[in-house]
Amino acid sequence: MPKANEKIETAVADADDKGARLDRFLAQKLPQLSRTRLKALILAGEVTTSGGTIKDPEYRVKPGESVEVRVPPLRAARPKAEKIPLDVIHEDKDVIVIDKPAGLVVHPAPGNAAGTLVNALIAHCGKSLSGIGGEKRPGIVHRLDKETSGLLVVAKNDRAHRSLAAQFADHGKSGGLQRRYLALVWGVPSPLQGTIDKPIGRDPRSRVKMSVRTGGRRAVTHYKVRKIFKGKDGKPVASLLECELETGRTHQIRVHLAKIGHPLLGDETYGKGFQSRASRLSPAAREALKVLGRQALHAYLLGFMHPASGKGLRFESNPPKTLANLIGALTKG
Fold first, then answer.
1. Which pLDDT belongs to residue 261?
2. What is the mean pLDDT of residues 253-266?
């Protein structure tokens, strides 16, 4: 007899399933549950056949075998719900797309246990979160730095989380996934359009920084110069780039652009040696950069395949006012 609020899911093996691993078999037959979740349920003794409880994820199923999975009720999410205003671009039963403001941390971590996007989503989505890995929490499949603004998609259930995670792991090779950013950088990259293919890993000299290094994970950024801005002396001083990610490493765009000698305006972490260039800007541009108070990076375009319908979705976001003001001031020179 199932316990209160406990669900019983049943999967029957056919001839084609002969010899399949139990966890893989169940993941195929019960797509509403992730393989990770199913493996945890197997190990917890929540999976049975006519022969009794099976606790081995590698157990090989037999044709005609009926497998029952007891699914306990979802646990409350560990991060607490917090009513934090969100700019919701799109929402349905599977996903939610947020235009994240600069200054908002995506996920709770040491030093940021509260006041994050996850805390806000738990409060905003409420009962529509049907569970990620057994918890009523949003599924984060990609992140934006705290001081980077722009578009971010979050899964609301296991099936959506699995689909989106696969798309991001595939880096858009199968089509559908697109991630593009607007970046203001010092100087003008040469050539005006190119690809930066340099591995990124944790900087050995700083726990909070990443760097291009041998042995790091492959990282690929495509860029294109959209506009060149001149300084008070009439010479190029900065440029507006469109960057497209082929991979998604921590601080990837910031690290790559700094490596080729064109760090982001306002990036105190990766562009420390470039602050003096602000003296070449007009007074209005210098003031706009000061007001921005962060790296000039905005995730303006996000495209992906909807986890349920398979339909391609594409969203765009205008730069926030402070960044738009800086672009305007640079344009005027």
1. 97
2. 98
